[in-house]
Design brief:
- The complex is a heterodimer of chains A (594) and B (414).
- The longest helix of chain A has 20 residues.
- Chain A has 594 residues and is of the alpha/beta class.
- Chain A has 14 helices and 24 strands.
- Chain A has one domain: FAD/NAD(P)-binding domain (3-Layer(bba) Sandwich), CATH 3.50.50.60.
- Chain B is mainly alpha-helical and 414 residues long.
- Chain B is built from 17 helices and seven strands.
- In chain B, the strands form three sheets. In chain B, strands 1-2-3 form a three-stranded antiparallel beta sheet, with no helix packed on it. In chain B, strands 4-5 form a two-stranded antiparallel ribbon.
- In chain B, strand 1 and strand 2 form a beta hairpin.
- In chain B, helix 10 packs across helix 12 and helix 15 crosses helix 16.
- Chain B starts with 18 loop residues before the first helix and ends with a helix.
- The chains are: A alpha/beta (594), B mainly alpha (414).
- Chains A and B meet through helix 2 and strand 10 of A and helix 14 and strand 7 of B.
Chain lengths: 594, 414
């Protein structure tokens, strides 16, 4: 293998977290190489307005996503099954190229509530330890809301989030989310303008005694300059948002927030079309260290990039995969209950109810985070024992919301009454009679972690580099079924009270369906923990077993919350990086004593 | 390749003038060591934007070799590092003064006026000396530029003598006592080291400046160097002084984002100027005597339905339905100098080839517009250009498909 000149740090994956790492390290004067498996992507010309608005290419054919032929996982529901490779883009959509999945995200930029970070102790205190089934391994985070707050604030300002604060330093503000943790400051931009449907949702929810608030949106509601001097333009509600790149500098992505500054820093060398295939390791026990990364470039040439520090910043599953194939950390063994890499993988429990209204909407207008939310049924914001919860109480919760993303023409054919119609009289009838009258009330539910839900290396299938594929063992458990039913009932309540006729109701029943797109919010597998026996990394993202490897992203989450993860991904990364630059760079050592 | 007219060589400040009036911030004081002299020279080099022309694409700064396209062929900039064989290491301060002030090389031959000595002649001796002192601190680079590729008669350097007779007024800047110190400082920078007229003053058939049309704009390297005066409505005429200084400092302001050759001038020169110097330039450019609206403008044309529809689908997402843009990020098309120029080259260039803003100390982002040459045919590009030039309060003439075709071919776009 050929060697590149050594650098201070190598970053594997140049998406949401990778660019933050590059910004912090080059600001500190370090030499940094960033490896990105996909191509360079930039606002112009790659997300050109009038080109991006192509539903067939980008939504149906996944033009911005990792295709399974490039990288995939194997999947099974239980440990007794044999996993098979995922050969079509299905339940989740992972972004390919610079910016990663933060290019095509919807821009829903929620903080987690303080209780999410102390989930286990909060629910145990409130409902007794028996609320946790024996197999449920959800646990408290290592970091607290109060520790993360300044970094949430910084990340939201980098992204130019548009929203309405509900709690500033303990003062509850009407129109915001009264359940949120205390914020140090307002959102940097006012909320997005509302549409008829979100106004109707807001009114009905208020009449039901709930506390609706506008979704914190990483779409700029006005021209904005972030703390790095990067400018954004106001969102035009073009409706091609989630699943697409933004061509008019409105939806925040690495390209519109951090990348312009980072790319000019002399300390950074970005190598695109370069796949990090293995972290090079040396030493044993306390002396275990990474010495660099092996990667393969576009010409299929294999290189060694020596480095003092390795930052693992790829997508959740790819982070865990890279650690496992490199022998970095001890793999999780669900039978013996040993090891941490691959443990506490979780997904998210999405549900919805579709309605037909007499009112006419203009559903082609939209933005990924144009919505009204109620958090009354999230986390421990409500009593899980009564009166609405019938049957056995569950751990977790979720938000209930109405979003108007913008319904493009092909998607319109799968909505409405009756079967999906992609041509002919039935399609025309639907478009004519129903397209302008459809709305969906949906819930984003938490997903708990379980002993037998995890990531490991597949014994059979290999990728194009000869590495075992990552194997996902996942199913939806009774606790989460109950939660999903409860949340979708709330969706039905609100939608009916809005005056809608219920068309269909979709809570998560039975086994998990790997073929239906749900969300891209995979998490866990390299979780943060207060002590080395409970997770893979400390609260700064540093591996307990290998102190010069730092792992960022939702792979740190010990279970999933009933909210979208990106704000917390950003905040935990910035929180970790502050400590890396403040304490690790002057004196490389474990940042939390063991 | 850089624009036809000379972008840059050296500059400086005025000796015969009151020092408080014209001296730059790094003025040497008697008895100080060379550092002050070097810093003064470095600032003169910034004012004159030497670097933009004397650096080949991807080459070592100041080592020359950049091809400068003129109507008479291509001239390659010289190596002004202190290399003795290939640079100006053997030049004395007198040799250097002769080049800067009179356009005469060390060997006695005439410089071509692609080197803007017709402007640099206004720089006083002390600053030219400081500039030479600064250039002597650069690493010596052994590099000889390619041979010039010129038509007759300009291939013969003696022909420049005739040109000089017609167009060259030798002599350092003389302040106008009736004006403020700030105005005079601005006039000095614009007319001297800044050599703004090299691009922004229309050139005649012989490449000489049309003195009666100072700063009234011309097309240059398939771009439009806008009118800097108040003689036509729109553009700089409608900018405030703060708009002018923001543009020169950050490469953008509330109206526009720099593109084309001006990007390089901002990156290498104007963003490094002091706030006082930028304010002086604005004071001079915005002085009413430079002109109030005088030129006639085109009648508003008939609206192009095609152009309007194409604009809505392709342009309005960023530029807004009314062409208003986003301050500091996306150009405001309303009453823009480039949009309303007599020549549509600038607006067509941006539509076909796209454009990219520059990175400055004050604005770290490179906002970019994607190209549309692959998407629009010539007729469509012309229709959009026409729509933009005749809507939103703009008052410029229609654009033909053949203009778009010519530019497409010149730029080598598919």
């Amino acid at each position: 293998m050929r060697h590149k000149p050594p650098v201070d740090a190598v970053i594997c994956g140049f998406g949401a977290t990778g660019v933050l790492v590059a910004e912090a390290l080059t600001r500190a004067g370090l030499s940094v190489v960033a490896l990105e498996r996909g191509p360079m992507l930039n606002t112009a010309p790659d997300f050109q307005p009038s080109v991006m608005q192509d539903e067939l290419r980008f939504q149906n054919r996944h033009g911005l996503m990792v295709q399974p032929r490039l990288s995939t996982q194997t999947f099974r529901h239980t440990m007794s099954e044999t996993a098979l490779p995922i050969r079509q883009v299905g339940a989740w959509q992972i972004g390919l190229g610079v910016g990663g999945s933060a290019v095509h995200w919807a821009g829903q930029c929620f903080r987690y509530s303080p209780d999410e970070f102390r989930l286990r102790s909060q629910f145990e205190r409130q409902y007794g330890p028996d609320i946790f089934p024996e197999e449920m391994t959800s646990q408290d985070w290592a970091v607290s809301y109060d520790e993360l707050e300044p970094y949430y604030d910084r990340f939201e300002k980098l992204l130019g989030v548009s929203g309405q604060a509900g709690n500033i330093k303990g003062r509850i503000i009407e129109g915001g989310n009264p359940f949120e943790g205390p914020r140090s400051d307002e959102y940097p931009n006012p909320p997005l303008a509302r549409v008829k449907a979100t106004r109707m949702f807001d009114k009905t929810a208020r009449e039901q005694g709930l506390n609706p608030y506008p979704c914190p949106a990483a779409q700029a509601s006005q021209a904005y300059t972030n703390p790095l001097g990067v400018r954004m333009g106001p969102c035009t509600f073009c409706g091609y948002c989630s699943g697409y790149g933004c061509g008019n500098y409105s939806k925040s992505s690495p390209q519109t927030s951090v990348l312009p500054v980072v790319l000019e820093r002399p300390g950074l060398e970005l190598r695109t079309l370069s796949v990090a295939t293995r972290i090079l390791m040396s030493g044993k026990g306390k002396n275990r260290r990474a010495t660099g990364v092996v990667y393969v470039d576009a010409e299929n040439q294999e290189w060694v990039q020596p480095a003092e520090m390795v930052f693992v910043c790829a997508f959740t599953m790819d982070n865990v995969h890279l650690l496992l194939v490199s022998g970095a950390g001890t793999p999780y063994d669900p039978v013996a209950g040993t090891g941490q890499i691959g443990r506490n993988y979780a997904f998210q429990i999405w549900g919805y109810a579709n309605f037909l209204f007499k009112e006419r909407f203009n559903p082609f207008i939209g933005a990924g985070a144009l919505g009204q939310i109620v958090d009354n049924y999230n986390c421990d914001n409500f009593d899980h024992e009564e009166p609405l919860v019938t049957g056995k109480p569950f751990v977790g919760g979720g938000y209930v919301a109405l979003f108007q993303y913008g319904t493009p023409p092909i998607a319109a054919s799968s909505f409405g009454s009756g079967e999906t119609a992609v041509w002919g009289a039935e399609l025309k009838r639907k478009i004519r009679e129903e397209y302008l009258h459809m709305q969906q009330v949906q819930s984003m539910g938490a997903n708990q972690s379980y002993r037998d839900v995890f990531l490991d290396l597949d014994p059979t299938y290999k990728d194009r580099f000869g590495r075992p594929l990552l194997r996902v063992t996942y199913d939806i458990k009774p606790n989460d079924h109950r939660m999903s039913n409860f949340l979708v009932d709330r969706c039905v309540d609100i939608g009916r009270a809005m005056g809608g006729t219920l068309l269909d109701r979709n809570s998560r029943e039975g086994h998990f369906d790997i073929t239906e797109f749900q969300t891209t919010h995979n998490c866990g597998g390299a979780i943060q923990s207060a002590t080395p026996d409970a997770g893979a990394v400390n609260k700064f993202g540093q591996m307990w077993e290998v102190p010069n490897i730092f792992v960022y992203g939702a792979s740190q989450f010990p279970q999933n919350a009933g909210r979208n993860p990106t704000d917390t991904v950003g905040a935990t990364t910035l929180f970790g990086l502050d400590e890396v630059t403040r304490r690790y760079l002057p004196s490389p050592a474990p940042l939390v004593d063991t | 390749m850089m624009g036809p007219a000379p972008y840059a060589l050296l500059m400086g400040l005025v000796a015969g003038l009151s020092a408080t009036l014209l001296l730059g911030p790094n003025r040497a004081t008697a008895g100080t060591i060379n550092t002050a002299e070097i810093e003064r020279g470095r600032y003169v080099a910034r004012l004159g934007d030497c670097r933009s022309c004397h650096t080949a694409e991807g080459g070592t700064p100041f080592a020359g070799g950049l091809g400068i396209v003129t109507p008479f062929g291509t001239i390659y900039s010289s190596n002004i590092t202190p290399d003795v064989g290939t640079g100006i290491g053997s030049w004395t301060k007198d040799d250097f003064w002769n080049a800067m002030h009179s356009g005469i090389r060390k060997d006695g031959a005439h410089l071509y006026p692609a080197m803007p000595y017709p402007w640099f002649t206004k720089i006083p001796r002390a600053d030219v000396d400081a500039l030479k002192t600064y250039l002597e601190t650069l690493p010596a680079v052994r590099s000889t530029p390619p041979e010039n590729d010129l038509w007759l008669p300009m291939r013969v350097r003696e022909s420049v003598a005739g040109w000089n007779l017609l167009f060259f007024d030798e002599g350092v800047f003389e302040p106008d006592a009736s004006k403020s110190a700030e105005w005079n400082r601005g006039a000095y920078i614009v007319e001297g080291p800044g050599h703004c007229g090299a691009c922004h003053t229309p050139a005649n058939l012989l490449g000489g400046p049309e003195r009666d049309k100072l700063y009234q704009g011309q097309s240059i390297e398939n771009w439009w160097a806008p009118n800097l005066t108040g003689r036509t409505p729109f553009g700089v005429a409608d900018w405030s002084k703060e708009d002018v200084t923001a543009y020169l400092r950050d490469g953008r302001n509330d109206h526009t984002v720099a593109s084309g050759p001006m990007s390089l001038v901002i990156e290498n020169s104007t963003q490094h100027m002091t706030d006082a110097d930028l304010a002086a330039i604005a004071a001079y450019l915005k002085d009413p005597p430079i002109g109030t609206h005088q030129q006639s403008v085109s009648e508003a044309g008939t609206e192009s339905k095609t152009g309007k529809a194409l604009f809505r689908d392709n342009c309005s997402a960023c530029h807004g339905a009314d062409g208003e843009g986003v301050p500091g990020l996306i150009a405001d098309l309303r009453k823009s100098g480039v949009v309303n120029a007599p020549d549509a080259a600038g607006v067509l260039h941006v539509i076909l080839a796209g454009a990219q803003g520059n990175v400055t100390l004050g604005a770290p982002q490179r906002p970019a517009m994607p190209p549309f040459a692959w998407k629009f045919n010539d007729g469509q590009a012309a229709a959009v250009a026409t729509h933009i030039r005749q809507s939103f309060g703009n008052r410029a003439g229609p654009v033909s498909g053949s203009e778009a075709a010519r530019l497409r071919e010149t730029l080598g776009l598919q």
